[in-house]
Amino acid sequence: MEFISNAMILSFSILLLLPKSRGTTSKIPDPFAIEQGNPTKIKNGYEEKWLLNIMVIDTRGAQDKKACTQCRCDHMNLPKDFYNVTRDIHNQKLTTNYKGGLFCCQDNLQCKQIEGFQGPRRMVSLRYKISWVDWNIYQIPIKVYILDSTDKVRSNGSKILHDCLAEYTIPATGGGGDSPHVQKENIPMEKGGYLIYGTAHMHSGVVNATLYGQDGRTLCTSTPKYGTGKEAGNEKAYLIGMSICYPQPGPIKIHDGEILTLESRYKNEFRTGAMGHFYIYLAEELPQ
Ligand SMILES: *[C@@H]1O[C@H](CO)[C@@H](O)[C@H](O)[C@H]1NC(C)=O
Ligand SMILES: *[C@@H]1O[C@H](CO)[C@@H](O)[C@H](O)[C@H]1NC(C)=O
Ligand SMILES: *[C@@H]1O[C@H](CO)[C@@H](O)[C@H](O)[C@H]1NC(C)=O
């Protein structure tokens, strides 16, 4: 199953975003839990729902598998008017400066194929497990935050405006040497809490990602695991998992209003669709 790798499976949910990546667990230590279905916390007129969105890139028969997994526009069979009709994350017309990423990997678009390649139809499924606990007085709710190393935070008066690109391109630098490409932003946290869980969502080529506190302390570094074999989940040279921080709840505390710094690091070579997301779970209180 070479055509699925960690880089290719993302699942987004509007109300509740949970990691997502194969080889990366998202188990929440007891007594912390994500609260769901509390009628006092659901806005009037809204309904809570789950959404599971699977992104799969089939690289069978692709002329260039690596470019295909990076959703490189020039390696896709794009419709003629692609650049005229596609809108970017800010709802602006995509310009030809856009070299690759999510917008070139839309549903039903196909990577350029080796001539004559015939791929049998394949079914793909996602296996997941959700554990429920009935809410009781011992459960402590956690909040899930997704930070993005492309977030150009702005403010309007006291209001903080996030402006995330979700993905970025690492330019060809021509022998960038051994030091990685670093994408970095400062992201204020309106509300803090105790760090319960942290991990990065990144793609193949990742070196690592680190979240720092305002005083420079390291809150969590997430490092990659690359595959070494052929079997599903261990494909050679593909990213197959990112490490997780499970600090002892308590000592790592983010303060209200603290400005965090997120650095995502990739090998310094041309890459499109790079992501540098950091998922953190924060508890605003600790068990008594
Ligand atoms: C699409 O863009 C090209 C070049 O930018 C232009 O020549 C063409 O007329 C456009 N087509 C449409 C349908 O807007
Ligand atoms: C800032 O807020 C004011 C008042 O809500 C609004 O009129 C203005 O458009 C905002 N500016 C930006 C840059 O968002
Ligand atoms: C993350 O990568 C940087 C750059 O290669 C390196 O200096 C640092 O030691 C790495 N951190 C960890 C915890 O692996």
UniProtKB/TrEMBL annotation:
It comes from the Eukaryota. Keywords: Signal. It holds the Pfam family SURNod19. Residues 1-23 form the signal peptide. Transmembrane segments: none annotated. This is Stress up-regulated Nod 19 protein.
